Automatic annotation (TrEMBL):
It comes from the Bacteria. This is MSHA biogenesis protein MshI. InterPro entries: ATPase_NBD, MSHA_biogenesis_MshI.
């Protein structure tokens, strides 16, 4: 119960949908299982006696906890990965796993095809690259496969430690686990700025076997790291040092380091000394936080075999069902069309019968040849009478113009000077015979026709003027209407 209460003091950041986390360190296997609502349900520790014995210990730890049919995060120790700093290649995040192995091939002795890599950006345009063996990841997969355990991601342990103090913008962390070296990490705003392995320091640092010289050496290394960070990060002030070291007296170690350093020193967990192992804290942090990198990339993930017997049977069943549905639909449509065709056939028979009756009526109403001949004769007679009527209309109009119009105009002209004895009118032709007072009166009289509507436009083909021995002037005038152009 005390362990569970102490872990509650570790504040959590982002949560992911996993049910367990497995930490593989040099000294042991640590498994943490979630009970929901960010609560730790159970933890298991399985020690590792030999460096390569972690494979058997991994299976034994999972069996001891009864872990199966779940999704897990894997946290690996420094003995299972390498870390390098390179110039930031400015490559898209999704392209890094494929490009990084080629960028670091000159820094390692392994072949590019035998490694997996991922990286995170750090200060000064650098990138921290993490490399692991493909065989390591595949071994973990093969060991967990019989237990139906799926892997969500594989993360180096030093990147998981940044979640230990999310409320602190910047801090340093000293960690140590069995069979491993002391490691010093520095974080600022969630980014890793320093990772050092302190090779000259050996455990234990406290207790009956404590050595003041070792504490002095450790404090000197810590101070050097603080000075380095202060020089490199001008706007960052790291004044907190936390530690999580296995089998150490937290209170004693905190007091000794506090005397030697000018920063605040505290244990990551302070309730019970010599109780909490680094791996236990890592398993807790790896359970509820999403890492920045994942060494378990798509190239290593098992390919899903869709062409299985079960899938084939299901696909055949679905295909037959679809074919049956399509067949039933088209059969229903065929029945509908047959019913509609029957209705149309009945309508066609009714229309054919009605057409026959109408044709019979047409035959009975057709005129005979005699009637058609009589109609033709009547039409010809009508056209003949229309022509005669038109001639009569024209004659009447001409006569009206000849007599009334011409006579009215002649009555207005030549009074006292012209005396007509004969007037002949035939259509448009008019002939005059008469007497004049003097010969020159006749031309003036003819010229005055231009002012009369019924006489204007007439021309004269003949004009004869005679004077007898008694001085009597007679004339003959023949006229003809001018043709319109």
């Amino acid at each position: 119960m005390k362990i569970m209460d102490a872990f509650k003091k570790l504040k959590l950041s982002r949560s992911v949908n996993v049910t367990a986390s497995i930490v593989i360190l040099q000294g042991g296997i640590y498994i943490a299982k979630s009970g929901g609502n960010k609560a730790l349900k159970e933890q298991v520790f399985m020690p590792v006696s030999q460096p390569q014995a972690w494979r058997d210990s991994l299976v034994s730890a999972c069996q001891k906890m009864g872990l199966s049919d779940c999704c897990v995060n894997i946290v690996i120790g420094s003995h299972l990965y390498q870390s390098f700093q390179i110039e930031n290649p400015n490559i898209l995040k999704e392209e890094l796993p494929g490009a990084l192995p080629f960028l670091v091939k000159d820094l390692i002795s392994d072949r590019v095809s035998d490694i997996v890599a991922d990286g995170v950006d750090i200060t000064n345009g650098k990138m921290q690259v993490y490399i692991s063996q493909v065989s390591v990841i595949e071994t973990i997969l093969e060991l967990l496969k019989p237990l139906s355990i799926q892997i969500s991601n594989v993360t180096p342990d030093e990147l998981v430690w940044k979640y230990a103090k999310p409320e602190q913008n910047s801090f340093m962390l000293l960690s140590h686990s069995a069979s491993a070296e002391f490691k010093l990490l520095a974080f600022n705003e969630g980014n890793l700025h320093l990772n050092r392995s302190l090779r000259g320091i050996t455990a234990p640092l406290t207790g009956e076997l404590s050595n003041s010289f070792q504490l002095d050496s450790l404090a000197l290394e810590l101070q050097r790291s603080l000075d380095y960070l202060s020089a490199q990060l001008h706007d960052v002030n790291i004044n907190h040092l936390y530690f999580r070291c296995d089998d150490e007296d937290d209170a004693e170690l905190s007091a000794e380091l506090q005397k030697r350093l000018g920063v605040q020193v505290a244990s990551l967990l302070v309730d019970e000394p010599r109780v909490f192992r680094s791996g236990e804290v890592l398993s807790w942090l790896g359970l509820f936080n999403k890492p920045d990198i994942n060494l378990y990339n798509d190239r290593l993930k098992p390919k899903v075999d869709h062409f299985t017997l079960q899938n084939v049977i299901i696909s055949w069943g679905v295909g037959l069902a679809v074919v049956g549905m399509i067949t039933g639909y088209y059969q229903w449509q065929l029945n509908q069309l047959e019913s509609h065709f029957t209705v149309l056939s009945s309508q066609e028979q009714s229309y054919q019968q009605e057409l026959g009756n109408l044709n019979s009526q047409i035959e009975s109403h057709k005129p005979s040849a005699a009637k058609l001949a009589a109609i033709k004769r009547l039409q010809e007679d009508i056209e003949s009478k229309k022509s005669s009527l038109k001639v009569i209309d024209n004659f009447d109009e001409g006569m009206q113009i000849g007599y009334s119009g011409v006579m009215s105009s002649l009555a207005q002209l030549g009074k006292g000077n012209i005396s007509l004895t004969k007037i002949y009118i035939s259509g448009e032709d008019v002939n005059f015979v008469g007497y004049a007072r003097t010969p020159d009166v006749v031309p003036n009289w003819i010229q005055s026709f231009e002012n009369e509507l019924h006489l204007i436009g007439r021309t004269f083909n003949q004009l004869d003027i005679k004077t007898d021995e008694k001085g009597l002037v007679s004339f003959v005038l023949n006229t003809k209407a001018t043709e319109e152009k």
